[in-house]
């Protein structure tokens, strides 16, 4: 059993994507039981949420240099300097527990800095396996498997992912995978549900433009509704599918494209200024964008894949299409456009989902579960699958 003040280090060196926000939120949730001064973060200096973490009272340590999968060669060149920096951070803060809130380059090899001091590691699994179209899928999968096997505690963000991890037999010693829902890591930014909008209903697709995100499916689903008044769609994000997305929606007067890298400040504004998030994914674990929408009381339209129905409360905070098909998605959207008053009710359901669960108690139990255990010896870590 841990006491208030057990020292935890949240360690995340990437600079983009969901991990930037999530690392800050994990630290804040752990601090709910331990106090902010007892929860430090080791971040890349390019992390856009560093000042928020400092403002929350957390000690923040940084590393500099290259970041991102396109900078793999430069990261390798800077590897020794970063190893020395991490050693110094650990020696200076003396954490009793380390948390990797999301996988990143060097997380697997550098976890040995904690293992050599017998500091237990908690790893948060976002996806049981890399998505189609992700970079270096085999490498990502292998590194994650090694991290899971080296960790004293493993946390998933949905029941769907936890079941996949347990079924794969990756956990040491017959342990279970703890589940702390992604949407439980933040408080709602509004107290009352959104009012049902006047027409047009403003749809939003937000995130990386990748094949598995289903934008072709969305274009096919909207084609029969092209002449229907009462809706607008904004597609915002960047990725390898950007050119295809421009072609897909070229003949839709209702569609606005914001293709390009989004600033962190733009994400909240886009959610605030639209009515319904649409996630036409072909496969998924859970979606960080859905969680961001829930925090603002925004309902979502989702396909029945992975943990997406779970994230919207199986219909309490959004609409779940009957199948992963353009026909099913068309009918779901048509029903939404014909009865937009349901948006206000679904907004209330979204806020209820955020309020129901608190990640603070869940993280306290996870920390307590590993803080008194020593991490595995470096020579005991097996690299077999």
UniProtKB/TrEMBL annotation:
<dbReference type="Pfam" id="PF13579">
    <property type="entry name" value="Glyco_trans_4_4"/>
</dbReference>
<protein>
    <recommendedName>
        <fullName>Glycosyltransferase subfamily 4-like N-terminal domain-containing protein</fullName>
    </recommendedName>
</protein>
<dbReference type="InterPro" id="IPR050194">
    <property type="entry name" value="Glycosyltransferase_grp1"/>
</dbReference>
<dbReference type="Pfam" id="PF13692">
    <property type="entry name" value="Glyco_trans_1_4"/>
</dbReference>
<dbReference type="GO" id="GO:0016757">
    <property type="term" value="F:glycosyltransferase activity"/>
</dbReference>
<dbReference type="InterPro" id="IPR028098">
    <property type="entry name" value="Glyco_trans_4-like_N"/>
</dbReference>
<feature type="domain" description="Glycosyltransferase subfamily 4-like N-terminal">
    <location>
        <begin position="16"/>
        <end position="181"/>
    </location>
</feature>
